[in-house]
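Exam review. A common question shows you a sequence with its C-alpha cells and asks you to describe the fold in words. Practice with the pair below. Do the first one on your own.
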Amino acid sequence: MMRLALDAAAAGHHVFPLQPRSKRPAISEWETAATTDPEQIRSWWHRAPRNVGIACGPSRLLVVDLDIPHPTDPSPEGGMVGSGRGVLAALAEAAGETFPDHTYTVTTPTGGQHLYFTAPLDPELRCTVGRLGRWIDTRGAGGYVVAAGSVRAEGRYRVHRDLPIAPLPQWITDLLTPHPNPESSDLRLPPERAAAYIDAVIRGETDMVARAVTGQRHHTLLKAAGSLGRLVGGQELDYAVAENTLRHAVEGHLGRDGFTTGEAESTLRSGLAWGIQRPRRITDTRDPPAQA
C-alpha cells in the first residue's frame, strides 16, 4: 500500500492512511494531515499495510460516486429502477450532454464506480448525498475517497479507466452549485390562478406529446417531462401524477415507426430527472416576497 500512496502523492493527490481493510481514517484531522510528502507517507505506511485515502479538497478533486441499489432497497417513487450510472446518464441526456466517463474511473468492491474530475477553483464544491439524484453522491472539499488498490472485506478498488483526470463538466458544476436566490425562477400567483397555471402546463405539454410527429417525439417528450419535472421538484406536482400523465400522452406513439416502450420510459425519466434538479415553485401573492 505504501507504493500506492507514493504513486498517488506523485500525481499531486494528498493522501492519508485508512484503517486496514477499511475505508475509515486511521488518523484524526485527516484532511489537514493529508500530504504529498514521501517521508511522511513512508512513516505512516511503515507501521501497517493500511488502505489509502485521498483528501479531495487539498487534491482539488470532485469525485462522483455512482452506487448500485442493494437488493433490499425500496424502489423510488413511480416504480423506477436503475443505478447511479443510469441516473447520471439520464441527467446527461436531459442536459444534451454525453455520459461523462472519459476520465479516470475506479470500480468499487460493491460494483459501483468513482468518476474522478478536477474540481473548479470557484465555486468550492463540497460533498453531497443524493443532490444529483438517487444513488449518486459526490466527494469534494471536506471529503475523501478510497484510492484504487485499497482492499475491503468485499473486495478491491480497481482502476476501470486509466485516463487523465478530466475537468468537471460545467453542467454537473451547475447542478452542484448552491443558488444564492432559489426564488429566481419561482412564480407568484393567487391560489386560484396557481391551480389553473399547473393545469395549463400539464394540458399544453401532454397535448404536444400526443401530437408529436415522427422524428420529433423524443425531443417533445423530453421537453414535456422536463417542464413537469420542474413542478415536481418544486413540490407543486406529485411525481406519480406527472409520470402517469406523460405515459398516457405517449401511449399512441408506442410501437409506431420504431418508437418503443423502452425509449419512451428512458426519455420520460431523463426529462423528469432534469426538471427535478431545477425546481419551480409557486408562492401565494398574499405572502411577503422572499428576500434575496
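Now try the second one, then compare your answer with the model answer below.
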Amino acid sequence: MNLNRPIVLYYHAGSGNHGCEAIANSTLKLIHRKRIEQGCIMDKTPIPIVISNNVDEDRKYSLGDLEKQGLCILVNERHIDKDFFAHVIYYGWRKVTGDKQSFMRYRFRDGYRAYTLEHNRCDHKKTDEKKDMSTASGNTPLAISIGGDNYCYPEMVSDLILAHDYFRKKGFDTVLWGCSIEPDSLKDAALLKDLMNFDRIYARESISYNALLEAGISVDKLELRKDPAFELETNAVSGIRDGAFELPGKYIGINLSPMVIAKESTSGITMENYKRFIHYILENTDQSVVLIPHVVWAGSDDRKPLSELYDAFKDSGRVLLIEDMPASDLKGYISQCSFFVGARTHSTIAAYSSGVPTLVIGYSVKSRGIATDLFGSYENYCLPVQELSDPDALINGYKWVMSHS
C-alpha cells in the first residue's frame, strides 16, 4: 500500500483508554517506518492527521510526544452535544432535510481542515514536475478507521456507517484497521454493506476474518493481521514501589474493568473470583500482586474495581495498585510479571507480546479470537465472563495455564 499520500486516522477514542493509545501509537510508528522503506521524501509527505475524541488525553500520554516528533498532527473532534447552538441548528436541519450525515460534517470539520492545510503545505513543496507520480503526495488520500472493536458495539454502528460514508464522499480510500466483528452482527444488511465499501479490511483475529469471508467480503480486500498493539514498544521501568517500599520477589499482574463486571451473568461472580484468586496467591505462594489499570475514563475506570481489591488486601504488604501512566510504561510493568490475568484486551496483548503466561476474562469475539490464534483454542486461556459461575474458576484457570506454559 502506498503510504506517501495524505493520511487521516479517525474514530480514535482518546488515550485515557490505553488500548486506544497503543493502537494509535503503534500505527503511527508503522506508517513512519513504511514510509522510510518506500523512500518517501519526508518533508514533502503530509504528516498523518489523528482526529481524536480527546486531544488533551492524547497529549498527556505518548501521542503528544509523537506529535512533537512530527509523526502526527492531533486534532480534536467537534462535540455537538457540547455546543448548544450548533446542536439546535444541526438537529433542525436534519429533522427537515433527513440529512443524517450533517452531524458528521460538524464532527470532523476541524480534522478535515487540518488535512487540507497539511496536504496543501506539502503540495506547495513540489519542485520537480517530472517526479514519479507513484510517490507524489497528491495521490488519493487515505482514511483509516482505527477503533479496533468499534463494530462490536451495536449502539455505535449507525454513526460508524455515517463516518465512513463521510470520508468516502470526500474522495478518500478507506481502511478498517485491526478490527474485530461479532459474526452474528454480519446479519445486519446495513452493516455488511458498509464493510463491503471499505477498500481494505485488516481483521486482527481469525474468528472475525472467517466470518467476514463467509459474509461475502472479497478475499482480495481482506487480510488477517495481528493487532498493531502487539508491536507497541516496552519502556524500561523501575521496580514496583509504593514510596520507599518495594514489593518483594516476583509478582502477578491483575487487571479488572467495570465493563467486564457489567457483562457478568451471575451478580458479583467476577469480583468474588478475583478476591479468591488474590487470597490463594498470598496464602500459597511467595509472590506479590500488582493491580494494573488500563482504562481511566470517568465512565469506565479500572481503578474503581481495582481499588476495591486493593482495600481488601492492602494490609498484606504484598499488594499494590500502580498509578496511571502511558501504555508503553504499563507494558513495561506487565512484561515483568510471572503471570497476568486481564479483562482489558490490550492489557492482555501487552502480556502476550511480552511472553507472560496470561489468562483472559473476556466478553467478546476479540478475546476469543486472539487466544485461538495464539494457542489453537481459546478454551482454558479465556474465561467468557457471561459464562462465569464457579467462584474458583480464576484459581483453576491460573493453575491450568501455569502447568501448560
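Model answer, second protein: The longest strand covers residues 173-179. The chain has 16 helices and 17 strands. Full marks require stating both points clearly.
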